[in-house]
Each structure stands twice: as C-alpha cells, then as structure tokens.
Amino acid sequence: MKRQLWMVALVATAACGAPSTPAPVPAPSPGSGNDANCKGPSPGAGYECVRDCGPPVAREDDPPPGFSWLSPEDAKNRKQYACPICLPPDAHVATPSGARSIHELAVGDAIWSLGDDGKPVEARVLYVGSTPAGTKHQLVRVRLADGRSVAASPGHPTRDGRHLGALRPGDALSGSRVVATERVFMEGTRTFDVLPSSPSATYWVDGVLLSSSFHR
Prior knowledge:
With 216 residues, the protein is mostly beta strands.
C-alpha cells in the first residue's frame, strides 16, 4: 500500500482541481519572454505571462486582475485547472496526531475523514496539490453559529457539493448554521488541497468538514 501511495506522489504534480463547470478564465498571453503585461523580463526559459485569477475569486467590483510570470508547470496547471479553489497554506487539517497546516502534509500522511457510518475514520493522503494564487487572492471566511470558522477559496466544495462562496446566513454546514460570510485577502501566494483515501474524500479544516476539490 505504501509503495502505491508514493507512486501516486511521483506521478501527481498538478494543481488544485476546478469545479465541474469552472468559471471562464482569461486566456494567458503568449510566453514571449518579454511581455509588456508583466513587470520585468521573464524569470526563465518557458515562463508565460498569465492573467491573475479574477471572478469568482475576487469581488465583482474589483479592478481587472493583473498579470504574473508563471513557470511552465504552473502555467500548464492554470490552463488545465483554471483558477485556484483550494485552501490557504495555514489552514489546519485534523489528523490522528493533532491539527497540521495543510502545506505540511505529504502523500501517505494520516488525516481524519468521514466514514460510511458517519463517524471519523483514519485515511491516508493520496495526493497533494498546490497552485499559485497571486498576491491579491481573496478567500471567503464562513462563520458558524457554534463559533467555528473556516476560510477557503470561494469555489472550494462542501461535503454535499456546494461551494463556500455560495453559502448564506442560515445555510447548514458541518452540523451547524452559517451566521456570516466575509471576503478576506489570503496571506501567502499559493493554495493547497489534498485527496484522502476514504470514499467520501472529506476532511476537517479548522474543525469544519469539507470535501476535497480533487474528488469527482
């Protein structure tokens, strides 16, 4: 089993997944190496000048997103998976050894997931993904009636397939009710997500049960 898990780690290097019907993302400009849209020259061979993420990860009244140089791998991931819909690097995931920041997790690590019987079950991380989000990436922070709160990209899925950005006060979430939502700027420039080995592909983030964006 461990050998299979580490084989997944070697093969899987893509960024966070996108919703089944992702919002349109402006097409990247050609990687000319000296694109006027990006500040300064290309950092290296194969870099592309790509427009930063816009709606739905930013307010509709925000100015148009800018452009950033992306490495060949990051540019490929952006084209394939669209804008990030994952978690900030400091999001805490519940594990048998205590809460851990998601950016610290690796393939094969144990985390808590939801079993078929509705109870927590130990699962293994099958896949870890990360994608650049830009310096102005906005998260939605959801506050619950029992005092818990969680922040993630607005497109991040809940256990029942909704997106955090679509939640409104009064909606049910993780055994409680939403009392408020707000947009906040993320600290850091990359988002992260993991895929648990459990059939539900769920895990607890800051005490709130969410689904992996890799789950299909």
